[in-house]
Structures are given as structure tokens and as C-alpha cells.
Amino acid sequence: MLSRSLLTDPVLGKTLSSLTYSYLVYFYNRCKYVTSPTQTALNLLTDHGLHVPSGVISNGIDLSYYAQRPAEPEVVRRLGLPEDRPLIIHVNRLSDEKRIDVLLDAMARMHTPAHLALISSGPAEAALRAQVERLQIQDRVSFLGFVRDSDLLSLRHSAQLFVIPSEADLQSLAMMEAMACGLPIVAANAYALPELVHHQQNGFLFQPGNSEEMAFQMDLILQDKNLQASMGAESLNIVAAHDRNKVLDQWERLYLQLAREFAELHKVRQPVHAL
């Protein structure tokens, strides 16, 4: 039996009790092989007693889809976003563990007249809207809620920067998709985010919760087009390893390996019939 670790859920990965981990690891240790999408997620399991063979196989994305460049200005206008300033996007559930409060504080500290688009919804939305009003940055932040895929692709290609202050992500598909669109990243140095964000290469990592450092890094990227371009190109280089075809190849090799091992272990000798 092959098992895929369920710890990709950001809330579960951060808050599972020892008892729940014990149950999960008990199940996983009955499997032939266990995979997780990141080394960070796998380490959580081994730290709690996983001892069967295991490895990392990323979630895969269709890089060819994100390479498309649809018409962008019309989407930006239709969604009510300004066209005369840099666009920062954040695609993640609006909940406490995503630390969007840190991002809003950073927006208030920035010197660059950038605009932030929050793409999603969630239980923390009302509190975040109140924070925007308290910080008096209503003209710099848009709550877009659900955005259809074609428009989201346009926004990624219209943006100059993707940001993720979350302290609980064990693999961020939204960040991978932004990287596939050639965006530089500013991310919290937490959980699995540093596995994709290489500091000073395709973006910056800031101390979790430090809005001042985050604001400085966002300013640094948005004020330097050459830095934007070089970091965006490196994002493409890094995310190339997560192309879905490469990931499918990894799964196929693993299944074939396990099938061979199973066949060898359960090989039955054919009886020899007397002539």
C-alpha cells in the first residue's frame, strides 16, 4: 500500500495534536511507502515516528498553462484595480494562520505607491477589512474574493510581485503558480516556503511576523526593474522541477519500483509436472 501524506493542509500541518500524529503515523507505518510534497512535511512525520520507506514527490503544475499571456489591461480595469502603480497579489485563504495582518501592516509601511490585490475569502475577512480602515490604506488594498481562473492568470501576468506571509504552509500551490508566471516572491521564512523561495535569488524571505522587514523587501523589488526581472527568471528556473510531467514520471517510477518489489516478494514457483 502506497500512502500520500495528508499534511499538506496548512492548518492541520501546524496544529495537529500529538495524539492525532500518533494515529496518522500508525497508519502510515503500515504502508509500503509514504510520500509528502515537501521535505518539511515529511520531516513532520519522521519526527513523530514514521519509519517506513518514504520520499518527497511534489504536487505538479502545468507550466505550459501559466506561460500563456492573455490580454491583461481589460481584466485589471474590470476588477477595479489601478493601472498606474505596481500590483502585488496574494492568493490564499483569508484566515488567521495566513498572517495577512502582517501583510497589511507592511503595506502601510511601504514607500512604493503599490496596490495589493487579496484574491480569496475566508473567516478573517471582516477583521482584515477593519484593519485596512484602521491603517487608512483603503486606496491601496482590494478584496477581490473569488476570481475565475482566466482572470487570475491575467492578474498574475499583470502583477509585479507575489507575497505570502503565511506561517503554516507545507506547500503553496498558489506560490508555485505565481513562480510559473515569472513573478518574484516575498515570503515568510516559515515551514516549507524556503524550499521554493531561495533568499536573494528568486525573492526574499523575512522573519515571520516582521512587517517592517517585509515592507523593506517589497520596496526593494518594486523599485528595481532589473531585480524584478532577474528574480522572476529564477522563479521560472526553480519551479521547472515541479512541472506536472516530471512529477508524473516520478510517480510512475515509484509505482513500477514497488510493483517489482511486490512481485519479487510474492513470486510463486511453478510446479514441475512429471512427464
From TrEMBL:
Domain of life: Bacteria
One GO MF term attached to the UniProt entry: glycosyltransferase activity
Domain Glycosyl transferase family span(s) in chain numbering: 77-233
Gene3D superfamilies: Glycogen Phosphorylase B
One Pfam family in the UniProt entry: Glycos_transf_1
Record-linked InterPro entries: Glyco_trans_1, Glycosyltransferase_grp1
Name of the molecule in the record: Glycosyl transferase family 1 domain-containing protein
Organism listed in the record: Dictyobacter vulcani
Taxonomic lineage of the native organism: Bacteria, Bacillati, Chloroflexota, Ktedonobacteria, Ktedonobacterales
